[in-house]
Amino acid sequence: MVMERSCFLLSITFLLVLQLQYSSIGTAGAAQTNITTDQSALLALKSHIPSDPHNILVNWSTTTSVCNWVGVTCGARHLRVSVLNLSYMGLSGTIPPPLGNLSFLVELDLRNNSFHGTLPKELSYLHRLKFINFGYNNFMGSIPSWFGSFPKLQNFSLYGNQFSGSIPTTIFNLSTLQLLDLGANKLSGAIPREIGNLTMLKAIRLDSNKFNEIPQEISFLHQLEKLYVQFNALKGPVPVAIFNMSSLTTLTLFRNSLSGGLPDNIWQCTKLLTLSLGENNFSGSIPKNIGNSTMMKEIFLNYNTLTGTIPDKIGDLPNLEILSFVGNNLNGPIPSSIFNISTIREMSLSFNHLSGSLPANIGLGLPNLQRLYIAANDLSGVIPNLSNASMLARIDLGHNSFTGFLPSTLCALTNLQSLRLPNNNLTIDTSTPEANTLSCLANLGNLTRISMAANPFNARLDDSFRNCSTSPLQYIYLYNCNMRGNIPIGIGNLSGLINLNLGYNQLSGSIPTSLGRLGNLQALFLNDNKLRGYIPYQLCQLDNLAYLYLGSNKLSGSIPSCLGNRTASLRNLSLESNSLSSTIPSTFWRLAYILHVNLSSNSLIGPLSQDIGNLKVVLEVDLSNNHLSGIIPSTIGVLQNLANLSLANNNLEGPIPSAFDGLLSLEQLDLSRNNLSGVIPKSLEALSLLKYMDLSFNRLQGEIPTGGPFQNFSAQSFVSNKALCGAARLQVPPCKNDTPEPNWRKAKIIIPLIISVILFVACISIFVLRRKRNVEVAREATSLPQLLWRRVSHLELLRGTNGFNENNLLGKGGFGSVYKGTLSDGIDVAVKVFNLQLEGAFKSFDRECEMLSNICHRNLIKIISCCSEVDFKALVLKYMPNGSLEKWLYSQNSLNILHRLNVMIDAASALEYLHHGYSIPIVHCDMKPSNILLDDDMVAHVADFGISKLLGGGDSNTQTMTLATVGYMAPEYGLEGMVSTRGDVYSFGIVVMETFTRRKPTDEMFDGEMNIKQWIANSLVLPDGKIDEVVDANLLGIGAEQEDDDLVRKRDCILAIMRLALTCCAELPEERISMKEVVATLNKIKTKFLKEAAARRGVLLNRPLV
Fold it and tell me: Where are the transmembrane segments (predicted)?
């Protein structure tokens, strides 16, 4: 019995073991099958990625386990792919439907690549997904509604794509969602009310879109901590309900069009840390209960129209770190309580109407203060002791009414970088050398900027800069300070100096030759002093000098001939009102890029050289009040940009050159008080911009022209000449046209006339013969379509674009849409259809359109035609088959350094022509990669130039603000609506940075104080290797097999390009270079790069074979 029982138990055990073995084999087989499915899905993705510049996916093959593939993580339980992370890998391609077979996927992260196209619906099968991030790719179109089918989704980001339309309501079915990030797209309309359903949300980012309304239902999100809706089109008052969200820590709504008063219940958000409502249209006063938000760290209410006083209760914010009320209409004293907030790091109260004085020991309660900005107010009293605020790096108290001595306690601020105190009533204590504050400031180890202009210092300059050999100073502004004494030789030791402005003082002595050691100096202003002696030739050693102002002194001698060697840098030269003598050196006319020349009121002699025509881009020439002789060179007529010309009060003789009709930009012409003779050329009637002309006190004769600008000139323009005649209003006798002439005089007229007729007939005959030949040649070339201006009907455009079919859509912008089309004569074109809802636009569309069509340059998009009807307006442009630079940067990314450099040179050349090559400077206003298009030969063409002229009435801030794009616009454009060619230079600099870094200026990494400009600047001051972390890795080829000297060559080229870009993006418009200089510098960089490449190829070819 026992034996039978034992056998039975043994049998049962054996069967169980067999079952377990078969079970494990089956499980392994199932797992093998499932992981094969994942493998197939991922290989399908790899096949849709044509560009993998870093060979990231090289180990994605059947010979390697899927779970060991780069970017792939498998779950320990099911051995299935649970995480796919390909972020920041530089991949380009599309997403295939089989990716939806990764049924165990929990995280999908594809951010910061160049994926494009549409997202397949099959992704909706991934029901386990908790994390989706498609940020910074090039997906476009509407956001797919199936994104609402992920029941476990917690984090969802589509930031930095080109999705448009509204947010699909299905998104708000994601009941577990905690982060929603749809920022930096092209979404519009109202934020849907259904957003209130996402009760688990903790953060919402909808910034940099075109949303116009926040719904009240957002207040249902009781767990929401962060809400970002800046850079949108929100208008009207802020929904009060927002501030009922008790968990809110960050609210950012700046740069919208919100209006009305600030809600009182803002300060009920007791957990609020950051409140950013700047750059809106808020009015009224700051609520007095502001002190209730005791957790608050940052408050930005800058650039609104707030009035009233700053509430005392603001001192009740014990954690406040940043306070910005800049650019409002606040008045009254600054509450003393504000100076007891020990945590504050930045206080910005500039550009208001604040009054009163500052507390005597302001620094005691502000130990962490780093930036203090209270400029442009009505403050008075003395500047207090700031020495206890030892962290201070930047101070701006300019444009107030401070009095008393410049405090020596400033010298205790060892972290100080910038000190701005201009336009006050400060003086300097000169009782002892030790008391001279300027002297000790010059030796602060971190100070780079001193700006104290327009203060009555009444001190000697040579006592102020004695021992400053190690000073990092870059900018010194001490003009109009009643400074006396000599310019100290020690200033020549400030090797980092970029701008030295000592104008409008009482300085005497000579200009020290030591200034020639300031190798970085770009601007030297010593005008309106009492300086004597010669202009030292050592100034010619300043390779970067662009502005040289030495006017209104007592300088003597001749103009240094070596100044002509500063062709590449010198832009403004002012030597007027001195005692300079001798002739103008012949080398002077080599300054081909100079813009302003003023040599007036000296004792210069000799004739004017014909080489004056070499100053191709000059805007102003003033040589008046000298002793110049000879005739006026006719070559002046080629200076098409010249706006002001004065040769008055010299000894010039001969006729006024008829070639002056080429001065198409001339606005002011003064040739008075010379010995000019002959007639006034009738060709001057063509100078349509001429507003002022003075030809008085010469020996001119004949009829005064009557057309063009001459209709507006008075008798004062022609007084005291020899024998002028004309209209009675000009106080000259009438011209006698009917007086009989002697036969000999008639013969002198008739004979040349007959000769002229014969020559004319001969020319006509030659012209007809040549035209006949040209017609025959043209018949052989009929296959080449001629892009001549012609009208195009709405019907022709409808047919050519298949009824403006979506399949023909090339892109959408702020002003309308662009479609590809084919005209009836077979020419492929791009049709830009304007949005007629733009308020006040198109007042002179037809005239401006035809004018723009006449602007021809190889790097500007050719405007072929326009179509203008009451309810339809469009431009017909030459089609660019290779699309935009933006597409090449973020979709294909196959451009090497030389490609990108060539594109930048092309774009810069286009801007140079718009700014300097046309009779009236044209400001582009919206320079960005999407407006740089590439033809079949990859030559760049700039688009959308002159849009402001087409819209009409572009003088209003509202309209000009619609032209620029966030991230590319110059600071003065964004803050004040100031439009100028300098703004284009800034935008171009940003485009250069983006082109070589492949980072948009709106990248999410650029927030707070960090922007693309600062990011680049930081990389340049660090060791060379740091530039590798900034530029597009594809350009340097790091990791690829290459010689060290090849990497150095590429790095040097990019460093030079980035330095140029930063120069373009100078904060102040007047500190930016012109596009002429940009083009010249880029060509230099390219030439050096190619020469070094050729030299390296030569070295490689000459190596011995091993």
Answer: 749-769
